[in-house]
């Protein structure tokens, strides 16, 4: 494939990034101490722990305190299948649906597990731990 | 038929190709005006990096914040490609594209090695040179509002320990964008970023982080949501959509609905859908070639089918012959029996016949007759056999003569003749009945004719009423039949109950009845219980019908034929009754009324369904190039507004947070002086509501916020909502502009200060975060 394409210069492009950089010559640079890979979740816990150790005023904005509060407006319901207005709720799967057609054609015949997939779109699925 | 003609009239829908991210043709440029001591502004966003020296008006490099590593097999050399380069090189190494990774996971940086690669790469492209091994430029760096400790620490380490920059300042990207765009010092900044959405009030040029709020939803989450929704909508879709596909779908087709509830209610109406449905075509190859092949195959297929039919016919013929042979054998045997019993006495004959498992002599005769007829029918073909006219008196003279006048021999003969005569009579009776029915029908037709001649309208209404009654009966019954299929349904349970009750009565009821009969005399039996009114009401008999499912089907069949008959009459004589009005047509699947069909297949009938109803078989469907093409199409309709709506109603995606408008409302109502006069804080806010961030590029975003806020504010309030000139680049422009101010000069943290105070330390300024270090 690469014969027909112009010559790959991936090596040069890569070299730009990986070569010795004249502006990055610090013999005293501390060895990367804490470069262990951490997931976003672990990092978030780290941040929470860090904030707990601080004696912060109640009005100090932190990563945690600026998260938006839950909505106080009445929630509108939407069909889990189509996204249209969802006036009805299936008692078996607690999926919301737009009309009887959606119920008859989709919800009644959902293979097990798919209902949870639909619910997971709005975070209402059952998560077993 | 109007259905077909309408869809034929409509032009085919516009197709949008599925787009992947395309990197610009030109290689990443190298900056030619590098000078030391000029600040370098870096907007390190999670989607893309914008970097440049502040002696330029524009960032010199803008590229996706992605790194891809690839091990070249031949040389064993590790390739590390960054940004657009990896897309350009993916023609040579396809894994580069699929292996591209961002240093971010959500809003947090998880891979600092990647960050370092990206910064190395971008500084090289700025043509940074250095004699002392250090980066001799001050750095202006973006960070999210309320950046985490880990983020700042990592960045500080990178800047001061790896590059040994002289000084660094951090600021909030959206506030820089506000700084670049806004002429006023007060306002509300709404930043729709790649992972997060923020609402930040700004007072006197200073972002008030205390009253800022963050929604954990951004472009990235949008993509994932759409991807999941489409996967559920088309579970058997042949190709997998990747992030860059969905990203382009959102970019090209999603828009914020100014009035969501209203637009949603009519979104799938045909005329709306015609305008709003977007068809996305995934490229398919080799469809045409396949179709050509079927041309030959079709003839072969037809031949094969013909042959198969022939074989089946032969088999059926063989079977028929076999059965007829069997019947002939039986006929021979039983007619011998008939002969034999003629000579016997009545009781003796009866005994013989019963031994042969017949109920009585009559039964035997009937059976033999039937056999004879079947055999005759087989040999004469299926023609109606003709009954030759006979004179009963002449043909069977002995039949009517009394026994006393006859001798033994004649009595035998008489029995035979009597039998034949009775058969003949029965046939005649049937004929007579047929004739009468025919006459009745003629009479009925005549009556109807007269009725129509007298008052056509009256006739029509009467017939239509009758038809409607039948149809409703049919519907009701089919509902019951449907319910019967489900073992747990009410109808099925009622039936089981009835059966159980009847069984119970049979078991105990009979015994009890007999006892009662003996004890209390005939008045109290079940049969003539005066209090029992069962049967006076016609519906009572339904109890028996409920038990027998088969009879329900029979009745349904009867009603159906009645409906057909009525419709035929109406079609013939009622000028206002057309083919479309018939029950059958009404009952057939009309995709235009089906929400689901329109949702999945858009404003055209699904070709697969259409071909199936026309009776094409599965093979034909599979090989039809048009069907294959259609199977590779996505219809994006409701999703176009559903996905952006999440910014306003995050609960749609399960995010338990208030939407953008509600957050702005909170700021306006709680955190301002509620002063609408000139010079009032609230007025300053609503006069300057500013949108920035890549997510705000969706059409109608300002419009929607304007409309939502308008409904909350008093009429005539000077509301002004506007968007950044270039929501993606403006944070960098703000940094560039800000770098020349005194405030910037005073806010730098030097390497020395960093070493003294640690990574928590920043100097607070109007566009930056709050310092959390306790002194």
From TrEMBL, chain A:
Its main location: nucleus. The keyword Nucleus applies. Residues 77-106 form the Vps72/YL1 C-terminal domain. GO terms for cellular component: Ino80 complex. It is found in: Nucleus. Keywords: Nucleus, Transcription, Transcription regulation. SMART domains: YL1_C. Signal peptide: none annotated. The keyword DNA repair does not apply. GO terms for biological process: chromatin remodeling. PANTHER family: INO80 COMPLEX SUBUNIT C (PTHR31200). This is Vps72/YL1 C-terminal domain-containing protein.
Automatic annotation (TrEMBL), chain B:
SUPFAM superfamilies: Actin-like ATPase domain. Keywords: Coiled coil. Residues 525-534 have a biased composition (Polar residues). Residues 1-21, 291-319, 505-534 are annotated as: Disordered. Pfam families: Actin. It comes from the Eukaryota. Residues 420-454 form a coiled coil. Belongs to the actin family. This is Actin-related protein 5. It comes from Australozyma saopauloensis.
């Amino acid at each position: 494939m690469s014969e027909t394409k112009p010559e790959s210069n991936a090596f040069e492009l890569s070299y730009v990034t990986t070569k010795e950089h004249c502006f990055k010559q610090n013999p005293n640079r501390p060895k990367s101490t804490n470069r262990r890979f951490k997931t976003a979740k672990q990092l978030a816990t780290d941040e929470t722990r860090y904030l707990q150790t601080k004696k912060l005023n109640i009005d100090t904005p932190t990563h945690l305190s600026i998260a938006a509060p839950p909505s106080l407006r009445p929630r509108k319901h939407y069909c889990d299948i189509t996204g249209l207005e969802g006036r009805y709720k299936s008692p078996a799967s607690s999926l919301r649906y737009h009309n009887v057609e959606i119920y008859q054609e989709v919800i009644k015949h959902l293979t097990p597990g798919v209902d949870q997939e639909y619910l997971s779109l709005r975070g209402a699925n059952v998560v077993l731990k | 038929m109007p259905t077909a003609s309408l869809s034929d009239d409509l032009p085919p829908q516009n197709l949008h190709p599925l787009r992947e991210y395309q990197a610009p043709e030109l290689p990443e440029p190298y900056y030619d005006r590098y000078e030391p001591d000029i600040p370098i502004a870096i907007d390190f966003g999670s989607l893309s990096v914008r970097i440049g020296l502040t002696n330029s008006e524009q960032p010199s490099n803008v590229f996706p914040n992605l790194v891809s590593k690839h091990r070249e097999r031949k040389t064993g050399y590790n390739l590390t490609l960054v940004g657009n380069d990896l897309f350009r090189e993916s023609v040579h190494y396809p894994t580069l594209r699929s292996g591209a990774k961002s240093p971010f996971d959500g809003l947090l940086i998880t891979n600092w090695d990647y960050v370092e690669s990206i910064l190395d790469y971008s500084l090289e492209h700025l043509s940074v040179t250095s004699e002392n091994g250090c980066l001799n430029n001050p750095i202006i760096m973006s960070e999210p509002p309320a950046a985490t400790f880990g983020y700042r620490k990592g960045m500080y380490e990178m800047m001061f320990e790896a590059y040994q920059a002289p000084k660094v300042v951090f600021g909030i990207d959206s506030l820089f964008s506000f700084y670049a765009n806004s002429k006023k010092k007060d306002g509300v900044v709404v930043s729709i970023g790649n992972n997060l959405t923020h609402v930040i009030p700004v007072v006197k040029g200073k972002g008030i982080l205390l009253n800022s709020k963050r929604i954990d939803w951004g472009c990235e989450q949008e993509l994932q949501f759409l991807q999941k929704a489409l996967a559920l909508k088309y579970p058997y879709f042949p190709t997998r959509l990747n992030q860059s596909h969905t990203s382009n779908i959102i970019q090209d087709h999603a828009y914020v609905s100014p009035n969501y509830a209203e637009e949603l209610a009519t979104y799938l109406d045909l005329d709306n859908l015609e305008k709003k449905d977007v068809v996305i075509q995934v490229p398919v190859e080799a469809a045409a070639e396949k179709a050509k092949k079927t041309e030959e195959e079709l003839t072969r297929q037809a031949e094969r089918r013909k042959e198969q039919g022939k074989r089946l016919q032969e088999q059926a013929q063989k079977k028929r012959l076999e059965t007829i042979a069997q019947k002939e054998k039986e006929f021979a045997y039983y007619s011998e029996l008939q002969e034999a019993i003629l000579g016997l006495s009545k009781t003796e004959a009866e005994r013989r016949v019963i031994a042969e498992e017949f109920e009585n002599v009559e039964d035997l005769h009937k059976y033999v007759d039937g056999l004879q007829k079947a055999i005759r029918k087989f040999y004469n073909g299926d023609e109606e056999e003709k009954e030759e006219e006979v004179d009963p008196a002449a043909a069977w003279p002995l039949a009517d003569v009394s026994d006393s006048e006859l001798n033994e021999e004649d009595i035998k003969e008489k029995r035979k003749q009597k039998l034949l005569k009775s058969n003949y009579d029965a046939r005649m009776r049937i004929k007579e009945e047929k004739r009468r029915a025919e006459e009745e029908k003629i009479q009925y037709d005549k009556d109807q004719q007269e009725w129509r001649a007298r008052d056509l309208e009256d006739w029509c209404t009467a017939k239509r009423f009758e038809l409607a009654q039948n149809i409703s009966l049919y519907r009701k019954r089919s509902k019951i039949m449907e319910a019967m299929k489900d073992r747990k349904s009410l109808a099925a349970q009622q039936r089981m109950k009835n059966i159980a009750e009847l069984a119970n009565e049979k078991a105990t009821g009979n015994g009890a009845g007999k006892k009662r009969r003996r004890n209390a005399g005939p008045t109290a039996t079940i049969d003539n219980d005066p209090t029992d009114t069962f049967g006076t009401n016609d519906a009572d008999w339904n109890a028996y019908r409920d038990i027998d499912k088969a009879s329900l089907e029979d009745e349904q069949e009867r009603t159906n034929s009645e409906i057909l008959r009525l419709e035929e009459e109406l079609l013939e004589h009622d000028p206002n009754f057309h083919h479309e009005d018939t029950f059958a047509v009404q009952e057939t699947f009309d995709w235009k009324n089906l929400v689901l069909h329109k949702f999945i297949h858009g404003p055209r009938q699904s070709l697969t369904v259409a071909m199936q109803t026309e009776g094409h078989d599965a093979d034909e469907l599979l090989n039809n190039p048009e069907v294959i093409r259609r199977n590779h199409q996505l219809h994006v309709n409701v999703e176009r507004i559903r996905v952006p709506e999440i910014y306003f109603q995050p609960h749609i995606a399960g995010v338990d947070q208030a939407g953008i408008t509600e957050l702005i409302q909170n700021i306006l109502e709680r955190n301002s002086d509620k002063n609408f006069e000139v010079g009032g804080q609230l007025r300053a806010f609503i006069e300057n509501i500013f949108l920035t961030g890549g997510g705000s590029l969706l059409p109608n975003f300002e419009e929607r916020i304007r409309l939502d806020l308008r409904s909350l504010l008093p009429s005539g309030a000077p509301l002004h909502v506007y968007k950044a000139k270039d929501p993606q680049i403006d944070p960098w422009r703000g940094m560039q502009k800000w770098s020349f101010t005194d405030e910037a000069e005073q806010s730098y943290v030097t390497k020395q200060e960093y070493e003294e105070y640690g990574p928590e330390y920043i100097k607070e300024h109007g566009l930056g975060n709050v310092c959390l270090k306790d002194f």
